[in-house]
Design brief:
Helix content is 50%, strand content 12%. The chain has six helices and four strands; from the N terminus they run ααββααβαβα. The longest helix is centred in the first third of the chain and has 17 residues. The protein is globular.
Length: 147
């Protein structure tokens, strides 16, 4: 019953973020009962992402996917400051200055993916002290990124 309730509660968010077909497919693939810790790593192709997303079969990875990718909690354009930030970003690019973004505590890189999508010309440094998270973070890095 718990899984059925979770699917019903979260399905509108998945459908809104990815459309009916992909939204339901990701919902049923990702929103399952998962343990706190697991070495199992799954790969998901998510609409709007340049490459696959990797999640361990853990509560923390699935939660961060829900927060960053489905709910888009870091979408700064819901706020008036978002437009100002984009204006500053464009002004820097016009002056041939490459913007720098530092993601401290990057976890497995879900917020970093969103930042890279929003600010493709920016140089993004990600700091993640947990080695297991960092190994997953390296998997989702674009080909031009270095670890």
């Amino acid at each position: 019953m718990n899984t059925l309730y979770r699917w019903a509660a979260k399905s509108p968010n998945y459908i809104n973020a990815f459309g009916l077909l992909y939204g339901l497919r990701l919902l049923f693939a990702i929103e399952r009962s998962v343990p706190k810790k697991s070495p199992q790593l799954n790969q998901y192709n998510v609409p709007g992402q340049a490459g696959p997303i990797y999640l361990r079969k853990t509560i923390s990875d699935h939660s961060i996917f829900w927060q960053c990718i489905v709910q888009r909690q870091y979408d700064m354009f819901r706020f008036p400051q978002g437009n100002r930030l984009m204006s500053v970003y464009r002004n820097l690019l016009e002056k041939d200055i490459r913007p720098l973004i530092i993601d401290c505590g990057g976890n497995i890189g879900m917020a970093t993916l969103d930042l890279a999508r929003l600010f493709p010309e920016a140089l993004i440094y990600v700091i993640e002290p947990d080695i297991e998270n960092f190994e997953i973070l390296k998997k989702i890095s674009p080909p031009w990124a270095t670890a």
